[in-house]
Amino acid sequence: MAALKRNLIFVLAAIITGLVSIAFGIGVVRATALFQNVTAQRGWIVFLLCPAGLALIVYLTRQVFPGAQGSGIPQAMAGLQMQDSADVDSVLSLRIAVGKFLLTLIGFATGASIGKEGPTVQIGCAAMNICGRMGLERTHALQRLLILAGGAAGITCAFNAPVAGIIFAIEEMARSFDDRQVRSIILAAFASGITLLFVLGYQPYFGFSHAVLRLDWIWLLIPVCAVIGGLAGGLFAQILVTPWKFLPGAVNRLAQKRPVVFAAFCGLVLAAIGYASHGMVFDASYANARDAMVSGVLPPVDFGPLKFLATLVSYLSGIPGGIFAPSLAVGVGVGTAFVHLLPGLPVAGFAMVGMAGYFAGVVQSPLTAAVIVIEMTSDPSMSVPVGIAAILGTMASRLVCKEPVYHAMSHQFLRVVENRPMPKPNTVEPAPAAEH
């Protein structure tokens, strides 16, 4: 009877996550469209909108919604290690879920290069944590299980990809396989996935791709593309983990002492990058990535580097927002750069290879990266090259970034929540934001 009650609560929380994710997705589309409409005829306005928007978001994050900053996945993973349920509630609460939802939408409306995936994971974990209070004994084992199930439901909803949600929870969050946990993870993933299916129908994240890589010499380029993508992804991850090593001292001091002013500065840099790209790198750049993979539309050669910088600046500003979707877009830029060098290469095929290599380099979870890319394009014919790219991208990334980015950042966040001293000043997850 207890197991039945627990499973019903898991299903309820997964359905709630699915419904909230649908509303979140609609909000993201409308916020993105609003930004595009406002800036379409007045491109210069980004130099006002981006700084003001990012500064406002950071102010609200620190004053009203502390704990909502960043991706949301580090907070969820920190929750896995917390013994005290009160600490878990401090990072996976209704207040933080509401803040994550609203502030991420403001980020999209002001052009930040962010994604909805990390926030959806934190919202899913918060939903599980809240529903877990409904008559269940709050043991540490149950607490972990709720968070893992919430993570699976979150990724499932973000990408409409239940298998990717299951793999993410096992490989990236739990880093272990426990058959007792897996049953609950699968239940949550498919309950949330069925919710999306009933409401939206079957819609792969990027639509239906028909990429082909013919069996000839171009396969020799797959390892090259994967390694370059992995190194770039590892560099991106390392900057997020230890930004003080890469930023000038004056910028670091500004981030620590005047975080709202620093966010405005980041917004100004973002505006300059976006203006130089003719608007292509604002928001998640979903349309550019989709067009490359589904329609074979070749993005400009500088799309990848500019998207890399725009995402970096957006995240370091301290606003809520994920890095999944922007990282996928950067990966498309890495892969399609080879098409610029060697015209005639298949755009869609190399977009997928570059995406898998770079994304695996960022998260250092090759199975998760490969499954996400395959499932969100509904193109199993690319399984082998995408799998190769994900493995090589992860291996290359570890030469640059020794610890997976989400694990390193979860440790930083855990120190903040538990009032332990940080080893270095950090601009990625500002300590005061989780304290006040």
Automatic annotation (TrEMBL):
Transmembrane found in the keyword field: yes
PANTHER family: CHLORIDE CHANNEL PROTEIN CLC-E
GO molecular function, one term: chloride channel activity
A Pfam family of this chain: Voltage_CLC
Cross-referenced CDD domains: EriC_like (cd01034)
Organism: Acidiphilium multivorum (strain DSM 11245 / JCM 8867 / NBRC 100883 / AIU 301)
Localization of this protein: Membrane
Name this polypeptide is given: Putative chloride channel
Entry-linked InterPro entries: Cl-channel_core, ClC, ClC-type_chloride_channel
Membrane topology per record: Multi-pass membrane protein
Keyword annotations: Chloride, Chloride channel, Ion channel, Ion transport, Membrane, Transmembrane, Transmembrane helix, Transport
Cellular component, GO, one term: chloride channel complex
Domain of life the protein comes from: Bacteria
